[in-house]
């Protein structure tokens, strides 16, 4: 795959070391590009876009985590933001003046991951028998329950500080280097948003690696089996119970880490950040990006974070074009965003960047859908076979 | 005791409102297996357009019953049209898409309707003019208004009507066939596209009626009101069993009663540790318990149901 | 399966609908270019508030208030450092979302705004304040009441709204004193504003020797309050206090009357709006009390005129925080005038020294950036209008100074 896309001129003529050099060159280019990106963005589009990139990377981690649950194991989760919240509050409460505790992030990020994983298993255990939309509503409820607790656990004992949230959360700092301050390195000013960008890129890269490894492992193949036909998977001797719990737990742990990073970048957490709409948006990133495909969901996260921000130009644009603001820019921006969702799903129902080999079968009719026997590693044809059999009830 | 009866009445009325929204929800849900996030927004359009029409009709000097009838009719037509349009443009092209694709489309449609409504009717909380004079009766120590009674009755009548439609008419047969297996239904000569469009039409008309009742009962309409209502209807529909009309009614009533009683009594039962702020927590816990015991909802059927 | 063709007809309605959308969209307010004068200096002021989502109505109100101030200043021809100011309001939607708020804050800083009016939600103001502080841009929130907002130690952080710790106790004193409440029920809407106000109110009520017989909660998205009201009915309180805003308070009062609860209803500045009266209905709103920081409108310089001009300019009455947003812009420009500079680094010091007489009353900041204890006025609904009852000078615990509140007593009596 990689050779083909890199070379273009007959693969066979490339010797093994040359291919390796090519790969190396590509890696160097990508790393260099990412290293320069925040400064390029800063210079060309403004620092806000560096921050948007940071936010997009946090969402990318969330999308990768949710993809483990929805894309790999086929479990529809509408309450994923709960794990994000657990991670964010774990970090916020233990690294802020709220309790007067300031634990290092080296402890807190793993702690957040573990706490979120525990919550994931907690959510998973009563829902093992549920499928499809019944599972969706229970996970949705779980997400709301967590948010309601965070919003109200300031009485009778103040734990979360309720709707007022936790302020003055410590920025990350490692060996005397604080991510919360601007530094000057070789005459270049590195602002907090830049520093966080590099850290987040590294962590997202790590997440991609882990998710890919998982997908290709025995566990990943077992998840795919469960996703395609749970009964058959069980008949084949797969321990569906434990594997589903593992999917919930592992998926949640990504959310926990992302939450910790979010708390550090924002310096503030409050229940408003963990609403149902956030869960829905993360799910949109996964589905729109290309469910089951790690690179696709990362793309989905980037597009869905950047798009609403890019659409902010509708106000100035109207003014430039007509000299007047005809349509309320805030409303127009939202409408265009909604329209974009509809149009994107219309033209790419399997997502913007689905797993290779899937697109043909997804686009064509029921016969193809029925014929396409899903292979492990492929994105799901349908999340679970259709509830009440749509026209392609053959699935 | 008076208080308890009043809480039951509160729960029953709130539950009927949820049921009104859930009835339309469950129909669309049943036939397409689609979580139609935009359904709540149709309720909103029903309420806002109904309010605008009511104000217009009253302004033109029409007597209240006629104005109200016109408003309801107008809202039903508008929502029906919107529902059919939505199905035709957004959902029909996705009939063969992976299952979660229409979910994202539904979210997009929901955003479109919300901000379309915001452009037409502004983002204010709009008040119903004080034209509805409701009568309050004292029943067994509880205050009951005529409006509350009519909401419960309307929900029951609509449920019965839908049941009749689905069980005893040719259209209903076609709907059930499409629901079970659209492809085979198509082979049997059923125009499944039309059946689905009609289902959307009926579901959307029901949403409009629900919107009118919400408007009359609470006296307020707002472009964002659909989200919460849609969410509650979704919960009620799943609680009762997806696609089941009596299930939606039962789920709605149950959800209303749970919320009411949780708000009213949990604070006392837990010595003030958990108060009415945990209302939704209790509602969801009941939902989880029900689904753990009956994974297809209260009145749902497991036959052919794999999702 | 013989049914008439539905689709064409409905398509027609759909087209009509989209035409309607376009027409309404086009009738939105347009911005008039200000008359150009010599030596003009364009200064950007950022305004951030939720313009979409369930709180958009408040956000638009803030935006309109800010816009009115900008129009006034541009028309007046304010001279700073020998140049005539032309203020440009840069409006951004923070969606009431903390993450978006931080992004928007950075975008406004990138566009070199001289000052910020915003945000609405405390949860948006707080993460944004850190970015404004780093950039040294003064931020005046017209609406965030969370005490923590100004407790972060930033020199750039101000607000022109009373914080919860200021309003709650005053309201409690009024309930215990004037209304002679012995038993109180308290409801909040589970937001930072509502809960903060309700908590400080409860604490002051208990300290004042009365009893809180019920402490209930709803959310800022609910419309059905029958369950909590029924529960409260059983406790027979003298007064029901609600910490929240008018979209909930209106239906709540209506349902309270329906259930036959006879208690007095009171709230904070969040319910002291014309829309509250509409939502509750004139008859049911009668006799509801609310507090509002500042002097009664009639006593404020330009007070009533502001409300009238707002109505004329935007075709709707002030919702809630437009006066605060208006004053926030004025305070920023006032500081620029005194410093003789539009550079935030130069005039930031002057913002904290503000002594301004605004639409909401006298404005001065304490060392944290909070509004110095000014007067607070209690209003009551009489015949569909909010009438001032008394004005309380807050810094002095006693000595309530009754304002000239000659409420028309006769129509009030007739209305009930």
Please outline the helices and strands.
The complex is a heterotrimer of chains A (395), B (307) and C (416).
Chain A: H1 2-7, H2 16-45, H3 47-72, H4 81-94, E1 95-96, E2 101-102, H5 105-124, H6 132-152, E3 173-174, E4 177-178, E5 183-185, E6 188-190, H7 192-216, H8 218-228, H9 230-235, H10 240-266, H11 276-290, H12 294-310, H13 314-322, H14 329-347, H15 359-363, H16 366-371
Antiparallel strand pairs in A: 1-2, 3-4, 5-6
Chain B: H1 2-32, H2 39-59, H3 64-91, H4 101-121, E1 126-127, E2 136-139, E3 142-145, H5 146-168, H6 170-180, H7 182-187, H8 192-218, E4 220-221, H9 225-240, H10 245-269, H11 279-293
Chain C: H1 7-26, E1 40-49, H2 56-76, E2 79-80, E3 83-93, H3 98-110, E4 115-118, H4 122-135, E5 139-141, E6 157-159, H5 164-177, E7 183-188, H6 192-207, E8 211-217, H7 226-233, E9 239-243, H8 246-258, E10 264-267, H9 274-280, H10 282-285, E11 289-293, H11 303-314, H12 322-339, H13 344-352, E12 356-358, E13 361-363, E14 375-382, E15 385-393, H14 409-415
Parallel strand pairs in C: 1-3, 1-4, 4-5, 5-6, 7-8, 7-9, 9-10, 10-11
Antiparallel strand pairs in C: 2-3, 11-14, 12-13, 14-15
Helix pairs in contact in C: 2-12, 3-4, 5-6, 8-9, 12-13
What is the residue-mean pLDDT of chain A, rounded to a whole number? 86
Radius of gyration of chain C: 23 Å
Tell me the distance between the termini of chain A: 30 Å
Fraction of helical residues of chain A: 55-70%
How much of the sequence lies in strands of chain C comes to 15-25%
CATH architecture of the domain at 29-275 in chain A: Orthogonal Bundle
What oligomeric arrangement do these chains adopt?
A: heterotrimer
Residue-averaged pLDDT of chain C: 85
> What characteristic shape of chain A results from the CA principal axes?
globular
Q: Which CATH-level-2 architecture of the largest domain in chain C?
A: 3-Layer(aba) Sandwich
Which sequence of SSEs, written as H and E, runs from N to C of chain A? HHHHEEHHEEEEHHHHHHHHHH
**H-E order of chain C:** HEHEEHEHEEHEHEHEHEHHEHHHEEEEH
Number of strands of chain A: 6
Structural class of chain A: mainly alpha
Tell me the CATH topology of the domain at 29-275 in chain A.
ABC transporter involved in vitamin B12 uptake, BtuC
For the sheet with most strands of chain C, the description reads: 7 strands, mixed
Number of domains of chain C: 2
Secondary-structure content class of chain C: alpha/beta
Shape of chain C: elongated
**End-to-end Cα distance of chain C:** 58 Å
